[in-house]
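Researcher: First entry.
Model:
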Amino acid sequence: MREQWQALTHKSFDHGRRPFNDKLAYLGKRILDLQTSLALLQQPISPDDTSSQHMYVFAHPSLTGLNNITPHAKSMALDKKRLAQLAGTYGLDKVTRWKPRKTENLESSGQDVVLAQTIYAIVGAVALQRGGDVAAQVARERVLAPLGLK
């Protein structure tokens, strides 16, 4: 039960006196990064991708999606604004415990970052409670699939 509240608690809540979600978010981000890479690997290659037209010494069918895994593609897939919108659809914006700098302007107080971190922390908490396989499944089905990565 402790991890559940901890996953929903940002460091700003109660000035960090209560357990907060930084370490859970770190673990969850690693899991989501891996699952994002695996999902990008399975995506079809765009026809205008000229980098795949180079002659390779070794070509294997399982390597065809390798060009999809770029830092830009991963950062776009896990963009904090997209994750914050997803968190809003799950209602996490109503239950996440944090103290905004400006209560009249949550966006400038960093609400997107807080909600993205909450998504990561929930995946991390699932990994601690249920194991890596369940956390990977949650990452694929509840985070990546709604964001358009299958």
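Researcher: Second entry.
Model:
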Amino acid sequence: MKRLILCDFDGTISAQDMGYVLVNQFSSQNWEEIDREFREGKIGSKEAYSRIAEIMRGDESSVLRFVQEHSTIDPSFSIFYQYCQGKGIDIKIVSDGLDFYIRKMLEIHHLSEIPFYANCTHFRDGEGIDISFPYSTEECGLCGTCKKKLVQIQRKEYDSVFFVGNGLSDRCAAQEADFAFAKDSLYTYCIKKEITCHFFKNFQEILNDLKKKIRGIVFDLDGTLIESYEAIYLGLKECFQHFRKEIFPFPDLKTYLKPDLETTLSQFFKPEEVSKAIPIMRKRYEEVYLDHTHLLDGAKEVLNMLHSDGVVLGVASNKFGRFSRGALMHLGVSDCFKSVVGAGDVPRNKPFPDMIHRALKEMLLPPEEAIFVGDTLTDIETGKEAGIDTYALPTGFHSKEELSRETPKRMLRHLRELTRLARNPLS
């Protein structure tokens, strides 16, 4: 299978957007107005560059010397590139920047053999530049380099095309590619448009993704695999009645639920009342939770398929441990799990990493061979603290937009995706 990774350059391979740095250094007039119109979508990069060319000053040797002095790239890119070479994965650069500084920076970092596509620059005699756009298309006519078209062209030669990027000019390419690695504004755009992507901070993380084999999955429980809101509400209602307080309406429950029971109760009761309310809540919950808990749509099918495929499964839940195990047994899926860790089983609840560490230990897996799936901001924080890739599922408290602000590795649309991803994480 012939694979290609197309990489954006500015802000992706390079540590900063060299185009912006150069314009700021060598423009003879205020260029912020051009940039503002570009970012507001009033003009495309092709028109922006054409206007910038009119105000750029500096001779070729001065500009190239400046590039030499400010040339920094992602420290992990070279290692990533070497790995891809060894695995027969081609790397090509597609940039809406300018060819002269890309060429110079690749030369400085001993990467000149990497093919690249970019806008072409001609230095005038004396000072100033002319810019041409050999990779522009008339489809929309906005970008100097149409990365979407370049993805389409490369498809003729490759079985799969991955794209890596971070900004405005990368949107169409991310949508056209088979898979995207995204950060910054591109990640937000991909989540909004439901473009399949992985978040990355640097090329080491992309390298880890290329090597990834998912041997195990740790799940959050409430809102991820099961729903027990009615049981929780009945338990809370018992506490309110005990202290002669009127409880909020059931539809408001999600508004008040916090990562753990103590934090939830603290919103309504004094500290000395909370300590009394916790056993009252748990007692009533234990009486009703089995009759008021159900698996989320598709969860049983997914768990059975993953288990039969040999994927090791675990649970890390802030629900009391014996309630978690009791619910899974009652719902007929407890045999799927190698480990079920809940509140009371470890010293600290989520967002501390103790539960995931305990689950992975019992699953006999290191973090790099597993993923954590959850539905809350707390789950994402916990996964990061535990050093495990976290996949977010917008089936509980938070929307995909809210979850994406905490940059999980991947945003799932449905649990069923996991049956495919366990076989091929980059699909």
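Model: Note on the second entry: The CA atoms of residues 302 and 417 lie 9 Å apart.
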